[in-house]
Amino acid sequence: MSETAQASDGMIALRKAHDVGLGKLQLLSDAVEATGWEDRPESANRLGEVFQFFEGELRLHFRQEEEALFPALEKVVGRQGVIMAMLAEHQSLWRAVDALYEKVDELKAADDRRKVARNIGLVAEHIVWLLRSHIDKENSMLFPLAERSLSARELDQISEQLSAIER
Ligand SMILES: [Fe+2]
Ligand SMILES: [Fe+2]
User: How far apart are CA 150 and CA 153, in angstroms?
Assistant: First the structure.
């Protein structure tokens, strides 16, 4: 481990959560991929698992970043710029997720299921793109910035805060 990059339990946990997220995004793509997916029970199961992820692990992960990591980084790099951009992306993601829930509700009573299903596919595609690119930015830019610019003590504090938020 070099002096400029420090590993910490907290950052490792945040990266692991990203890997879980990428898996769930693949599941979302798979769920709405094939023509006629809207009538396949396995698609409903996959969507159910993805929704559980959004409401559980993803909400927790965003809270952990917003309440522990971002405030610590903000002290070093300021709120304008990268922190604001990451917060805005979290909000965009929730807006897209709400749109997805609405469309999936619509599907239940839809006359033209194929058309609603196509729209769900588009929203899902947007979510996959949004969250993949967000994770990519955090992995390649934000997390290395934290590991370079925060002290070992600060990173330990973040690790502690993250576990406290988990409880
Ligand atoms: Fe994030
Ligand atoms: Fe993240």
Answer: 8
pLDDT in tens, 61-115: 999 999 999 999 999 999 899 999 999 999 999 999 999 999 999 999 999 999 9
**Contact indicator for 165, 60 with CB cutoff of 8 Å:** yes
pTM of the predicted structure, to 2 decimals: 0.93
Q: Nearest ligand, CA of residue 66?
A: 1
Looking at all shown ligands, the one closest to residue 18's CA atom is 2
Q: Considering every ligand atom shown, identify the ligand nearest to the alpha carbon of residue 61 and give its number.
A: 2
What's the domain count of the chain? 1
**Ligand 2 midpoint to CA 32 (Å):** 24
pLDDT for 1 equals 44
pLDDT tens figures, 132-162: 999 999 999 999 999 999 999 999 999 999 9
- Does the residue 2 lie in any domain? no
Domain with 54, as residue range(s), is 9-166
26 CA from centroid of ligand 2 (Å): 17
Residue 143 alpha carbon to ligand 2 centre in Å: 9
Which residue is listed with tokens 């299903």? 117
Q: How far, in Å, from the CA of 14 to the mean position of ligand 2?
A: 6
CA torsion sign for 110, 115, 118, 123 is negative
